[in-house]
């Protein structure tokens, strides 16, 4: 039978959900305007002549971490793709900081939020999620979060935010005040406006992907170094070109993963460094003392890797600017990285690493632990090993 012409009873559908969508986007845009931008700090280290160090302080976001930017982008991505509506139940797999930020945005929009996290997530992050009205579902290992989060989203007829898949695509890497554009804009007018290296650790891989793509898009000579931690799959995947690599998982919250996440884009990375957990925590302690406030373990990873790159640059007689990030506050880790009893239980001795880092910052030279280089598993200097 041929198609019948439309009648009054078969009128075209209305845009039923658009008023809420416009409201939600306005709420998220308002948060972005109120947050303005984070500071770019320039601490001075006597032992690093010719090296300018810049720290992008992402801990000053309303939810206290780098993940505030990602959470806002994931919400916008879900809303604009039609996945998040009024009344949608939101679910995320997280090691804590992303979930804190997502709980904040869910509360702004009046949406229920459930975070699936490892049991060993820091108590302060769990408390922050609850304070924003979020709910926590705990699993025994980091590798379980994906399946449980997807199942809960299905059971509630909700939406799985899935930071580990969407982090690299939810943010516009060409600009729109992403973290890369923010850093390079703040460097304008500095003596070294274009840094030699940007150093960042990998959790989802999304921040590294944004930075690496932006650098290439703008035709900049800056190179990207990604720091990875013990128990993470990223370093071995980058080194072997095998995305099937797995690992037990990381003790440094927020970075390192037991599998290679979809948002990890190895092709934009020029060099990777694997940082021992003791070095990450020691670097966090050392940097905290120089900034007069605590920074988290992932910031310690970033800072140790930056020092490693600086050591190679000075050994080869090079100078220039290096940029890395303060990911979150160390106050979230008072019961772990800053607790001597926790360090003892984990068998982590930060004292030798502290001495090595402090000596390097004060006097330069090699960043070495005893007679061995702490970077003995990185097969070449980051200055010559590019991908």
Automatic annotation (TrEMBL):
One of its GO terms (biological process) is L-cysteine catabolic process to pyruvate. SUPFAM superfamilies: Tryptophan synthase beta subunit-like PLP-dependent enzymes (SSF53686). The keyword Lyase applies. It catalyses: L-cysteine + H2O = hydrogen sulfide + pyruvate + NH4(+) + H(+). It comes from the Bacteria. GO terms for cellular component: cytoplasm. It is an enzyme of class 4 (lyase). It is found in: Cytoplasm. Pfam families: PALP (PF00291). Coiled coil: none annotated. The modification N6-(pyridoxal phosphate)lysine is found at residue 67. Residues 47-328 form the Tryptophan synthase beta chain-like PALP domain. Its EC number is 4.4.1.1. Gene3D superfamilies: 3.40.50.1100. A cysteine desulfhydrase that generates hydrogen sulfide, H(2)S. The H(2)S produced by this enzyme stimulates respiration in M.tuberculosis, mediated primarily via cytochrome bd with a lesser contribution from cytochrome bc1/aa3. H(2)S modulates the balance between respiration and glycolysis, and also contributes to redox homeostasis. Probably eliminates toxic levels of Cys (which can induce oxidative stress). A cysteine desulfhydrase that generates hydrogen sulfide, H(2)S. The H(2)S produced by this enzyme may modulate central metabolism. PANTHER family: CYSTATHIONINE BETA-SYNTHASE. Belongs to the cysteine synthase/cystathionine beta-synthase family. Cds1 subfamily. This is L-cysteine desulfhydrase Cds1. It comes from Amaricoccus macauensis. The gene is cds1.
